[in-house]
Structure formats: C-alpha cells, structure tokens
Please model this.
Amino acid sequence: MPRDYFVYVLANWSRTLYVGVTRDLERRLFEHREGLVQGFTRKYRIHRLVYFEATTDVLAAISREKQLKSWRRCRKVALIESANPCWRDLSEEWSNRAQIPRPSASE
Model:
C-alpha cells in the first residue's frame, strides 16, 4: 500500500510563511500548533495551513519542498492565492483523518 506524503505551507496572521514536508500532515500540524517543534514556526506562531500538495512519491515530495523553499516570497504567495485566495486555514474543516485529501494512485 503506497504511503501519502505532503508538501505544505503554513502561515501566521501576518502571513509569515513556512514550507515543509511530512508523511503525516495531521500529526505535523498538531506539533506546530502545540509548539512541539523548536525553531521558526514556534517563535513566530506559524500554524495555519494555507496550502498543501499530496503525492505517493517521497522523492517527488522532497524535491517539491526544496523547489518551493527556493522560490521568492511573491511566487509562493501567488501559489497560495491561486488555490486559497482568502488564506483560510485549510485544516479547520478536518474533524478526522478521513477528510484529509489523499493523492490518487496515478500521482
């Protein structure tokens, strides 16, 4: 059974951005929100999920994370706003893991 991998972008209320990759998006968001992750996200209270992509290919996920991290801020903002123009926290509606969108078998 293929595993799911997620490339994600978090933001705080002032729209400071953080790009990451994880196998378990729900757990990772919990860690960010509870301040369990030392460093940048904890210091700046970055925990709103504003964008994510899913794939079953770990190497593609890591490559995409590196690509997004290399982009200038304006390009990241354009990517976020193309899918989430209001910068909503995309995880607000998730009441359980079954609601996290999963990649299709072809990804």
